Fold this protein.
Amino acid sequence: MGRGIRRVLLFLVLLVALGVRLRGITNPLLDNQAWRQADTASMASHMLGHLTDIPNVFLPQLNYDGITPQRVELEFPFLPYLLAWTWTLFGWSDIWGRLWSIFLSLITVGGIFELGRKLFTDRAGLLAAVIYALMPLSIYYGRVVMPEPMAQAWSIWALVMIWNRRSSQEERGSWKVGLLMAGAILAKLPQLMLFPVALLFGFFPLNNKRLSQLVRYSMIALIPPMVYYLWVHFNVATSSQFVSGILTGQVADTSKLDWKLLSKTMRRGFTDGILLLSGVGTGRLFFFRSPARLALLTWVGIAVCYIGVVCARIPLDYYLVPILPLAALLGAYALDGIPCLPGTVLAVVLLVFINRGSYISLTPKYQWNPEYLSQAKWIKDHTSTSSILVLSDPPPMTFYYAHRVGFRLIKVGDEENPIEILQRFPGDYFVQLPQSAHQEPFWKNVRARYPEIGPGIFDLKKPKPH
């Protein structure tokens, strides 16, 4: 495949990838994964005016649970920082976060194309890019205001760079590759699974010359994430240690494995056809004559362990995002076994057929409730900027859109007296969120005690007389 043809085909793939990711581009951060998207944007909002206050600006802050923004233990806020600078220069709008994520997703598509053609063939690289561009999980999580797009882009290009460095037998520049891998791990901790894969790509088989390069690369790739995560861990309250809380609570201390839900999530996110092709591609790897074979098989093994240890315990689809590039490469390698030009045409037709229902099946993920916006706008327009809110349920998006801070009610039974519960919080207003989980008796008690001054907004400062 000539360079000109290769570039034209890659451009067409990127155009398709862009087109499917533009769906819902103007949606507020209230569709599927609204909670995590609003959290990401909230972190950016707290950086405004403090962008040069380094390193404190990189301590993530969220609008709950307190009378001031709370520091929390999360990944390094690359995207919030980038978003805060964009808002500073061009003004606040949710669309900027989506545009950055789409841009990063397209960089990932280009990286998968590059890695696929370097490891296998030009055609395999093109097919891998097509598969990644069309997988349902890749489409949706390629336009969310979350860290996944950035982590994907940096990690896949870290692998491309380390393979290029090995192929060219370049001895300098390992620090650049190490920093890119460190950035990927900082952006999203599960990208750590690619660290041993990168070592095998770049330094296997090991010799004296490669040993010093491996040590230098490892230190550059691992020390920044270790320093950052420790720094954040010891600078937040115990209740706000989310990253370590997930590792110790939802992974280490959880024995329940929900294989049925995980299987359903994987089939929807990858499609049955891509999962089948990934299996065929894995089988072909055993006959693959390349220094990359061990690294790719190791990647498969790590992915299987990750699915069994993490995804089976937390069967949420965004935990599967780190596996998308591997599935794309394996599926492409399977299709690359079909020889000649007609085989390429057949492979593309097969991919279109496999993904024909993917775009439609994503529709529920783009739906959102406009009541959140109207309610938050009322709060923003009719209450003081220093007001403290108490939300009726855990979803915190109202804090972001109302530009307020406060508390949330979590695990409150309807048999409990809401008056006694609300008196525990130093709040000014109680907000009945759309689709609240509380039943009518709960709200009957609230209305009997507090005046409703807005749409689902109760004034806690002026309780009704008994």
User: Anything to note?
Assistant: Residues 371-459 form one domain.
